[in-house]
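Um, can you check?
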Amino acid sequence: MLPVWLTVKEAAEYLRVSRATLYRMIADGRVKAYELPGSSRKRFKREELDELLSSAPKQGGDDSLKTEEANAPD
C-alpha cells in the first residue's frame, strides 16, 4: 500500500502539537521528515506518526480514572 503523506501543518495537527514542537521532534530524532523529489518541503508518513502515537504515554491513563472512581460518592 502506498504511504499517506502529510504536510508540516497536517502532521502537527495530527499529532496535536504546534509546528515548533514538530520541528523540535524532528531535530531530536523522534519524528522522521522526508523531502520528496522536486520539493524542499518536508513531508511525513502518517503510518510513522501512528507508530509514534501508539508508543507515546497516554495522558490521564487508567490510574486517573481509578482515582476519580474512588473519590465518587456512592
